[in-house]
Specification:
globular, 289 residues, two-stranded antiparallel sheet
Length: 289
């Protein structure tokens, strides 16, 4: 089974368990709305790619780690779109959860996804219980305090934020978590994969800053121009468009260079390059051509 099918199957199994016959119907529907159909699933794909490079001797554990990362990412999107933050009308080309189901259900859906992530991790890693503590620690640090995605969101409420600190928390932390969790699920040293996650995560955020500045809502599948509208720290404002593009190119090259020597390094390199191409706004890609 390829990575995409493994991810979708793991997500579907977990959601079916959570959104069973006894669950509130509207909340169950909101969970599905937040998760399916998904985006690029880049974080769980990174997790499985690293697990594969490390031998992937316990696929149930790596599938669970990948699904947990995606649930946490989806939870962050649901909360990020709320009126208290971006008040975004669309996400992934369809109404955001609070627009489709109301703000109370959206808050609860985000909360439920966070809990579901750790339940999924606990169930899937039961086959390798000696690896579960490391997995819980890695994933928890990626989403909590002091430098996980929760902290990243909170930096937007501070009067001053260091751009790299902010972006490493808001976006980079979960990339680090995905890469390290893939290694830990396979019984490898997760620290060997930290740098890849850091550089890829920062590249992803810089690319998003560029897209937010010059792409349109249709291309992004979410409201464009949000950084400027909310006066958020972003690479284009700090570095200018040429500087941000140059920073992105350097981070992509750095991510590729950070891939440890391993049997799956070609697949990982292809993943990084493909994501860089996917995230390049159409206008920049056309001008480069």
């Amino acid at each position: 089974m390829d990575a995409r099918n493994r991810i979708e199957q793991a997500l579907e199994t977990a959601v079916n368990r959570a959104a069973g016959s006894e669950a509130p119907p509207k909340l169950s529907e909101a969970l599905r709305h937040a998760i399916f159909p998904g985006g690029a699933r880049v974080r769980p794909r990174l997790c499985l790619a690293v697990a594969k490079a490390c031998g992937d001797d316990t696929p149930d554990a790596s599938n669970a780690a990948a699904a947990a990362c995606e649930f946490l990412h989806c939870a962050s999107l649901v909360h990020d779109d709320l009126p208290a933050f971006d008040d975004a009308e669309i996400r992934r080309g369809k109404p955001s959860v609070h627009r489709a189901f109301g703000e109370p259900i959206a808050v609860l859906a985000g909360d439920a996804l966070i809990v579901l992530a750790f339940e999924t991790l606990a169930r899937g890693a039961a086959c390798a219980p000696h690896r579960l503590p490391a997995l819980i620690m890695i994933v928890s640090r990626a989403v909590g305090m002091p430098s996980g995605i929760t902290a990243g969101q909170a930096w937007e409420s501070e009067p001053v934020a260091d751009l790299q600190v902010y972006q490493r928390a808001k976006t980079g932390a979960l990339f680090v978590g995905a890469a390290m969790a893939g290694a830990a699920a396979a019984g490898a040293d997760p620290d060997d994969w930290r740098l890849l996650g850091e550089r890829l995560g920062e590249a992803y955020q810089v690319a998003d800053d560029v897209r937010d500045a010059i792409a349109d809502t249709e291309e992004m599948g979410k409201p464009a121009g949000q950084d400027s509208a909310h006066d958020r720290p972003n690479a284009v404002a700090r570095l200018g468009l040429p500087g941000a593009v140059g920073r992105l190119e350097g981070l992509v090259a750095g991510a590729i260079a950070a891939i440890p020597s391993c049997p799956g390094e070609d697949d990982l390199r292809a993943l990084v390059v493909a994501e860089a191409q996917r995230l390049t706004p159409k206008s920049l890609a056309q001008s480069a051509a």
